[in-house]
Design a protein that fits this description.
This protein starts with a helix and ends in a 5-residue tail after the last helix. With 171 residues, the protein is mainly alpha-helical. 56% of the residues lie in helices and 8% in strands. Helix 1 (5-19) packs across helix 3 (41-53) and helix 6 (135-149) packs across helix 8 (160-166). The protein is built from 8 helices and 5 strands, in the order H-E-H-H-E-E-H-H-E-E-H-H-H. The strands form 2 sheets. It has a 3-stranded antiparallel sheet with strand order 1-3-2.
Amino acid sequence: MSADFSALHEPLVEWVYDRTRADPLGGVPITEFGQSHSLTENQTYQLLQFCKGQRLLDDRHTTHDGPEANLTPRGLEWMEERRRRRADPAARAAAARKGLLVWLWHRKHDDILLPAVADVLHDPLSLFEGERLTDRDIDRASAYLSARVCPADHWRSQSRIAAAVTVPWKT
């Protein structure tokens, strides 16, 4: 089995951060993380080495009992900045609008005329800083995009979704 370390390194750093809050630079065994992502012990070590190469994690606490990771100062700073960006409502709203608009564009080019907007929540485009957007975020984005792309006379003849898919973006 081949593991995609580029897709797993951010979740691992966050997982280590969540488990080391009392001592941010302390170590935590990561075997459980590896198992939850169907990684072998060797792949878990390789993932840790990948994160070490990114300078987000270190392995100074690793023993023969299994891989252990600790945040580096850069990893701690990266996580705190990521959490700060997640808490920014304007950035979250912009990400929801962009994700929904790109998702709708893909549906249009797949010849899906009236997609269920809630389906965007099952797509990677609905991730913001590693966290899934909520249905409320997507509802707000949908309302915003509908208001921006639909002239008033289209409200009676087209649904919000159909209008967002068929009417070109206005600046």
